[in-house]
Amino acid sequence: xxxxxxxxxxxxxxxxxxxxxxxxxxxxxxxxxxxxxxxxxxxxxxxxxxxxxxxxxxxxxx
Length: 62
Prior knowledge:
Blueprint: H1 2-29, H2 34-60
């Protein structure tokens, strides 16, 4: 009897945790605008390109 009660409590707490995870997922999706995503992506690609060019020049200078 005690095991069944513990199992029910664990299932309820698991359901609550799953609901909280879903709420957090839905809140985090709309936190950035499209322009902000584009800006972040552009910066990442730009920095990566600059690093690649620097490494390429370093290797080809030898």
